[in-house]
Specification:
The complex is a heterodimer of chains A (about 525) and B (about 180). Chain A has about 525 residues and is α+β, with helices and mostly antiparallel strands. Chain A contains 17 helices and 15 strands. The longest helix of chain A has 29 residues. The two termini of chain A are about 35 Å apart. Chain B is of the alpha/beta class. Chain B has one domain: Rossmann fold (3-Layer(aba) Sandwich). The chains are: A alpha+beta (about 525), B alpha/beta (about 180). The interface between A and B is large, with 64 and 59 residues.
Chain lengths: ~525, ~180
């Protein structure tokens, strides 16, 4: 099956390309090809465009200690297929560069700037190779993700200033916002260029909360790695730890007991529900509809209190563990959760009627912050933000994990692409999530919730995709000695921040917070 | 505006709807009430007015922010106990700092500190802010707020629960006597 797909891919290439493929192999639903460095862009762009593939991650690995070179890895998901395609090529240390993918696949932009920051490998022809998370005061020649960089050393600062993109012309002025904002939110800098009221350009500058998580993970034993992964993005703790566990389980070739899988799906949806409650409340708040915001805040608080009663953690932390989950729910607890959900569903319905029946709110949400389907595809936008623009993609359905194969749910898709569409997609998703929790907990299989302790062999690769509340996230791990040798993390926000820059264009500055809230992106997850 | 209200009234009969059921278990509500009133008394004694808090995220994973925001929801509603979150450090009595202090936020944190008027109380909230937490050995972070500012109170927890944050503020007020 997967072998056939590989053949189809190679056959579909224009005549000069197949010779660029040096080797290929197939493992489960993963296809791997190794290509020549100089023709990487052509091969990747061809598959991306002609197969309607999504770029899932693009990153480098310092392999100098074993094969004497760096590897650059790009993973694509083939549209409508289960398979993922990994394209890999070596980069010699004495010639650290490769042809940039950004001119062909715009979404590669931040990935390549990150590779440049972290490994000192230059993507040639990149349109604007500025630092991403290591600021200008970071000394040259220090590359944190290279193996010879001491993880505990804190290099000094050099005097330097960041260059923002400039828009020039009569009547154009800039509004700098952040990194510390008026509300209690994460830090990031937004640089608006405006002429009159409408925004003509926005540059999102992040990196303020860069904590070196990928490097830390390389010195963190697997069991503690679960703990670390829960702290990548706090409100997506469960989704991140789930992806981490699944990647490690893939490396070890371990099966999680059925009951553990069902519990994972239920908890993942409980996380989505409280996040979506918060997002919807944020939209009400930013349209100055305080009553709606208060209702949503109560719903969210009750959901988090329920998380705490069921698992001991309001954020569902310390629930995932390698090989399953760390706790079981007895019949009484299951019933408590399900009956609470019934009440919440009724309350949520009232809340939805309230916000969707309030013209002053709809007046702000409709046609605001529109993201076109074309832009959403070009930037590989993921999650509710993509589905509100007509991209029919959901990892739970397209690359099923945990118990999703056995659960039935709808993937809401809309076409308007505005704040209103994102709001309504999230509303529909809450109902679907409630139904999934109901199905999963109502049909919990008997048995263990976790496998006994297992060995994790070094030198293998495991990848896991998870549909977090914000959308598709990826953990990609090469195993080392009792800990990851390389751990690439990609949060949904890393793709979606670019969509913000596009969605705000032509909107007035006061609508920015609303548009921002409708995406509700993670800074910590993006900065790592 | 009038049209909106009119439409709302005609459609639903009312513009707002009452909350259908009790939002919180009675014992939790009582516990919260007790902690809140204790805090209110102490804040009044120390400041003779309410307490203004500016939150600064210096590298948190955002879980601490979720809990600080929860304190303003209708269930905790900390403003009734005389605590409120202000938009600028210039209006703040307390800087509530979360995160281990990343290299890239250090400058902004110090700027916020300089903008804060006396008494410039510094509260480090969450394990990261207290001692760097899981990030303490990273090249990109400090080992907590105390490496850059004099900390008046640490609130441990990952993240601390909303009610624990309220109780910790009582401790802070006691320390001012």
């Amino acid at each position: 099956m997967t072998e056939n797909r590989l053949r189809e891919i190679v056959d579909s290439m224009p005549s000069e390309l197949p010779s660029a493929v040096r080797s290929s192999r197939v493992r489960g639903e993963e296809i791997w090809i190794e290509v020549e460095r100089e023709r990487f862009r052509d091969v990747a762009a061809h598959i991306h465009n002609s197969w309607g593939a999504n770029l899932i991650t693009l990153h480098a690995v310092d392999n100098r200690t074993s094969t004497g070179d760096f590897k650059v890895v790009a993973v694509l998901a083939l549209k409508g297929e289960l398979e993922t395609l990994t394209i890999m090529f070596p980069v010699e240390p004495n010639e650290p560069r490769f042809p940039s993918l950004t001119p062909e696949i715009p979404c590669a932009d931040w990935y390549e700037r990150e590779i440049h920051d972290m490994f000192g490998i230059v993507p040639v022809d990149h349109p604007e190779l500025r630092p991403l998370v290591l600021y200008d005061d970071w000394p040259e020649g220090e590359y944190p993700l290279r193996k010879d960089f001491d993880p505990h050393r804190r290099p000094g600062r050099i005097p330097s200033a960041y260059r923002f993109r400039r828009v020039e012309g009569e009547g154009v002025f800039e509004i700098p916002v952040g990194p510390i904002h008026a509300g209690v939110i994460e830090p990031g800098h937004f640089r608006f260029s405006v002429a009159g009221e409408p925004i003509i350009a926005l540059e999102v500058r992040l990196g303020y909360v860069h904590k070196g998580i990928e490097k830390l993970s390389e010195s963190t034993p697997y069991d503690k790695g679960v703990y670390l992964s829960e702290r990548i993005s706090g409100d997506n703790s469960f989704a991140h730890s789930l992806a981490y566990c699944q990647a490690v389980e893939a490396i070890a070739g371990v099966e999680v007991p059925e009951r553990g899988l069902y519990l994972r799906s239920a908890f993942a949806e409980m996380e989505r529900i409280y996040n979506h409650f918060g997002d919807l409340g944020g939209i009400a708040l930013d349209t100055a509809f305080g009553v709606g915001a208060a209702h949503a805040a109560i719903l969210r608080e009750r959901m988090m209190a329920m998380n705490e009663r069921a698992t001991g953690s309001r954020f569902l932390r310390s629930v995932n563990r390698l090989g399953g989950v760390s706790l079981d729910l007895d019949q009484e607890q299951v019933e408590a959760v399900l009956s609470q959900l019934v009440i919440l569903k009724l309350e949520f319905k009232e809340f939805v009627e309230l916000i969707t029946g309030t013209p002053s709110l709809l007046d702000r949400t409709e046609s605001t912050g529109r993201l076109s389907l074309e832009a959403a595809k070009d930037l590989n936008v993921v999650g509710p933000g993509a589905r509100a623009s007509g991209v029919d993609r959901d990892v739970r359905r397209d690359h099923p994990y945990a118990a999703y194969r056995n659960l039935s749910f709808r993937v809401p898709v809309r076409s308007e692409g505005d704040v209103d569409a994102r709001m309504r997609v999230k509303i529909d998703e809450v109902y679907e999530s409630m139904s999934i929790v109901d199905q999963a907990l109502g049909n919990l299989p008997k048995g263990e919730v976790t496998t006994p302790k297992f060995e994790i062999p070094p030198g293998r690769i495991g990848m896991s995709l998870v549909e977090s509340p914000r959308g598709e996230l990826v953990h990609w791990i090469i195993s080392g000695d009792g800990r990851p040798f390389r751990h690439k993390i990609r949060d949904a926000s890393f793709h979606n921040w670019r969509a913000m820059e596009v969605a705000v264009l032509g909107n007035i500055v006061p609508d920015f917070p609303l548009i921002n809230k409708s995406f509700n992106l993670s800074y910590s997850g993006s900065d790592l | 505006m009038f049209r909106a209200i009119d439409k709302g009234v005609r459609r639903k009969g009312v513009v707002t709807i009452p909350l259908p059921i009790v939002p919180q278990a009675p014992e939790d509500a009582r516990e919260l009430e007790r902690a809140g009133l204790e805090l209110e008394e102490r804040v009044r004694k120390a400041f003779g007015r309410s307490l203004a808090i500016r939150e600064v995220d210096a590298g948190s994973c955002n879980a601490c922010e979720v809990e600080v925001n929860a304190l303003s929801n209708p269930i905790y509603d900390m403003e009734r106990f005389g605590l409120h979150v202000v938009a600028s450090p210039r209006h703040a009595d307390v800087l509530l700092v979360t995160g281990p202090v990343t290299r890239n936020m250090e400058h902004a944190l110090l700027q916020a500190y300089r903008s804060t008027p006396a008494p410039k109380l510094i509260v480090a909230m969450g394990d990261c802010a207290c001692n760097g937490g899981v990030f303490r050995d990273s090249y990109a972070t400090r080992k907590g707020v105390a490496e850059v500012l004099k900390v008046d109170l640490c609130i441990p927890g990952c993240p601390p629960r909303p009610i624990d944050i309220l109780r910790a503020f009582s401790t802070l007020m006691d320390s001012l006597r």
